[in-house]
Structure to design on (240 residues):
């Protein structure tokens, strides 16, 4: 029989989902709200607030199973060569161990947005030309910089909860064109990667995922490391 402490730990993913939805019920900004899972530069709250001028209603760390992080959205060569995307797994067996081996777990930030802000995200991200909307079920967790995301996923699996009931219904973005989805990744700039790393640290995503981001090889840029950080810095200065 599980101890009371273990039982409470097993309930944490469900409690986080309820807490996330409760925060939204307190907001009167818009009747229509959307869950949006960010995995790229939008993980950094400053990108959302200062650069994109949005006002998220709620935000939390989250893990998206059965997906892989890609860099297959072409940008400007030698400046910002590419942007991140996610691709769903072609394997329909939702086995946690297998997903770890295949590197099919994407950590990110789950935002709750009002209708206007969600439309703005779609517009600024180039939907439907660069990206297309993709339905998914990320699992929110309280980031601790260690293993909180993995443990939330493992607990749901341990309880034999059907995978189509994991987490919360949300939208994310994937490459709009089939040839991009099937093509090779384009190494991003170090500056762009640094914004992802900043967001991962801000929301205390799992330590192993942060290490993964830090170990991604950056593409060649000239001059400097890219423009992503500089654009964000200027946006932050304008709002001071």
């Amino acid at each position: 029989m599980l101890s009371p402490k273990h039982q409470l730990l097993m309930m944490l993913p469900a409690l986080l989902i309820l807490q996330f939805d409760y925060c939204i019920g307190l907001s009167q900004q818009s009747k229509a709200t959307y869950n949006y899972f960010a995995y790229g530069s939008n993980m950094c709250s400053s990108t959302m607030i200062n650069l994109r001028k949005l006002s998220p209603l709620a935000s939390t760390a989250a893990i998206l199973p059965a997906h892989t992080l890609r860099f297959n959205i072409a940008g400007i060569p030698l400046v910002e060569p590419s942007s991140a995307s996610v691709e769903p797994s072609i394997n329909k067996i939702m086995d946690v161990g297998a997903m770890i081996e295949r590197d099919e777990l994407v950590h990110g930030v789950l935002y709750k947005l009002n209708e206007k802000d969600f439309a703005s995200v779609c517009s600024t991200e180039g939907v439907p030309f660069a990206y297309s909307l993709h339905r998914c079920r990320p699992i929110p967790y309280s980031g601790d910089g260690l293993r909180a995301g993995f443990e939330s996923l493992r607990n749901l699996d341990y309880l034999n909860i059907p995978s189509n009931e994991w987490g919360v219904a949300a939208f994310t973005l994937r490459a709009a064109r089939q040839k991009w989805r099937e093509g090779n990744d384009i190494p991003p700039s170090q500056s762009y990667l640094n914004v992802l790393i900043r967001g991962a640290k801000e929301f205390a995503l799992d330590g192993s995922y942060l290490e993964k981001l830090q170990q991604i090889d950056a593409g060649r840029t000239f001059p400097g490391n890219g423009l992503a950080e500089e654009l964000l810095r200027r946006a932050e200065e304008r709002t001071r």
User: Anything to note?
Assistant: The beta strands are 33-38, 58-65, 67-76, 80-88, 105-114, 131-136, 139-141, 170-175. The radius of gyration is 18 Å. The mean pLDDT is 89.
